[in-house]
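Help wanted!
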Amino acid sequence: MSPKDDEIQEEIAAHLRLAIADRMARGESREAAERAARAEFGNVTHVAEVTRAVRRGLWLERLGQDLRYGWRALRRTPSFTAVAVATLALAIGANSAVFTVVNGVLLRPLPFRDPGALYAVSYLPTNLPFELPPGLDDRLYLEYRRHDLRFERVTGYQRQELTLSGVGDATRLPGARASASFFDVLGVQPALGRGFTPDEDVAGNDRVVVLSDRLWRARFNADRSVLGRTIMLDGIPRTVVGIMPRGFAFPASAQLWTPLALRVDAGNSFIFPVVGRLRVGATPEQARSELDAIARAARPDPSVDRAGMVAQIIPLKDTVTGKVRTSLLVLGGAVLFVLLIACANVANLLLIRAATRRHEMAVRVALGASRARIARQLLTESVLIALIGGALGILVAFVGVRALLAMAPLGRIPRIDEVHLNGWVLAFTLAGSLITGMLFGLVPAQSGARREPQEALGQGTRLVGGAHQRLRAAFVTGEIALALILLTGAGLMIKSFLLMRSVDTGYDASGVVTMAVDLPPVAYPDPARVQAFHTALLERLARIPGIGAVGAVSFRPMSDVGIMGDFEVEGATPLPHGYTVDKPTVSPGYFGALGIRLLAGRDFTAADRAGAPGVVVLSETVARRLWPNEPAVGKRISMQQHPGPNDWLTVIGVVNDVVQDAQLSRHSTVYLPYLQTTAPFFINHMTFAVRPEPGAGNIAAAMRAALRDVDPAVPAQALQTMDQSMMDTIAEPVFQMRLLATFALLALLLAALGTYGVLAYDVAERTREIGLRMALGATPGNVLRLVLGRTAALALAGTAIGVAGSLALTSVLTKSLFDVKPTDPATLAAVTALLLVAALVAGYLPAQRATRIHALTALLHD
Amino acid sequence: MNEPRGLSRIELLQGTLDLIILQTLRWGPRHGYGIAQMIRASSQDVLQVDTGSLYPALHRLERQGWIAADWSTSENKQRVRVYTLTAKGRKQLEHERSQWEQLSRAIGAILAPPAESEP
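Answered by r_m:
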């Protein structure tokens, strides 16, 4: 009782005493006065109750009663409460953890002013063998900007990496080139200093830079005087003009911004992302048709192949979250399934518990509690369980989010910095718990309240509830079906992963360590100097003790860059239109370092240098494709479109194909020697690979030291083993696989527990029947079969529904699967078998117990 | 839980009890029993307020801020809960009072129509 309750009692008591005193003053006897005052007052309890109801509101009053009663009831059955709460804590916690990530990555608005009005503008071909990120080419961008658009303003930008030197160790930083209007369009201004002026957005006048808050704090100690100072980026001095506010890192995780300073090149076009802020009242569709019209008018030249060009206006957020969206939604669905299974389990526990509480409920009905009140009481109990589960679930989510972030592939999930447990997550958990509590509580509450009091009071507690039994069976069937769908998803991902791991990559990654370098054009302005650097570093690396082989390649397998193109073949052999090959530039010894086998001819040597006859090495499929019936070695090809007499390159060797990217298919490749490659674009970025002999020490540190010896201003990048590179390449599906497998295991465990619980209760409920059967001559084997038969019936029904559900749902995984169809029969068969076995194991324990039932004890039972 | 009400009792119109309580407290602070007595006396024993309506009404008016309550000791050393009209309650009383006057004029007009309006 609260103090308020006491006050009301006291107030009523005072009223009565005053009334009695008045009556006695008028000459009535004490007894008569008391009797009359009470009669006049009416029902004291009733008055107290209605007054209390006013104080708290009737609803709250009853809720308080229900909660107190529910809490007492839960404490009377601690093991039931513990199992139910733990099940829900796990399931709700897992959901909150996934929601935390979904909220941070997908739901929260981008941290810009009115981000809903920002759209990416794109006019690109969509019929290419690979997917281009949305963007415009430079000429169209300049033309487009001249028009009065549905956009208030558009701005172009381009991701870039820059080497910051002269401030601590040289380091490679992600950044962007951005138009002068970039910060205006996004609606985020520098916290200190300024953005770029239009004058600075011109090539030659663009030696300015804006820093991120993070970089400013990490490298410049948050010193304001850095404004106006000059820093070295890729060997070019740039003046710091602004510092962005904390948290601004767009695009991707950009740390610094330099002007876009477009310079249109006659021979090439340059494609970059463009973002615009839509005018108030304009629709994306209007902007799209406007872009389409401008683009068509801008390129009247019919010789330009415009087939497949598509104008698109895409919400900026979609371009940021694009790829992870599907996999996060799949995970969200998976974790929701786990919650549903947990709900089914707890609902079954409640049904079983309700059976043991029939007497209690009957007494309450007999004492005048209405059905609705009892149903509400039961529902309050289940919501109470869910809320306690949800509260513990927050702890689970706290741990879960940390685990998720630790598992997440580095740099593959956008906005990962924005993932935090926050008010939204707490609200989600609270709402989720309430809904969960109602979900699993509703059916037991309804059926619990429906019972006739005479029935329960008169017949004790041995009543077999046929309806209850059917409900429990339905719940178990449902959870087995859901678990099967999750297991299928996980099984498919695991099979896909194993296939990926067993792909013959064409190279031998064991022990190989790679290190990438970028040579800034300022310090390395001509090919001779770039080549000299490469030669020096190769020599220096080869001197590291314990090194077996050393080589360099312009883009290694499993990197996210590549150069593709076509070429000419000497003689009449016509190449099919659109036949393209990878064109990496390599050093002598590269094939040996990566374990790529030479199938014919010879490797490059130091003699294949400028001035010597031009040479190339082909990969197997290129050689076979061009010269199916004769040796390729000795034939000639050219990388020029209209080759002159000196442009022909002789094929000196053939090597096996290697896989290059996440698609894990073998690429057709033409290798060029770095000493004969003159375009800086082909050799500025180089990856050095070393193969240590077994037992070599810390190779990575030695490689870093070697690089410092050759040029301390060049930072080492992506220093890792080839195995790590492979794992990075398939990091996303692996992440998805791990999570799906975790959820599927949880689902399997819950489903097995649920099956066990229901069968154990069945056996207990049928003790008398089983005892009777045994008294009549049934063997333990008969009894075992009886119980296991029921288990099998439940499990078969569940798996049948689950297989149908899997066939309908697993297609969402198509994009994440490698070489496995979402309807893979082997996987379906395997997970079905796994679930059946799990169910039979769960049913075996109760079945065993049933065989030990003693006929006599059973008949005396109850 | 609702107990049947006696047919002989006059059901007060919704809101009328509030008006009566506020009006009663105009003459000074009073405890629950005192308010009941006062209402009965000033209505010449016609209105007898049901305690099951009075106390909930008092606590509701208190929650609405129209009256304030405090414990004090009565003449005969009883600890009693005494209610006082607040400034807000005074305003509310004026408002309800004018409404009531309008209503009673209107009802009076209906019950005793002026002869002139007859054709």
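OP: Thanks! One thing I noticed: The first helix of chain A runs from residue 3 to 25.
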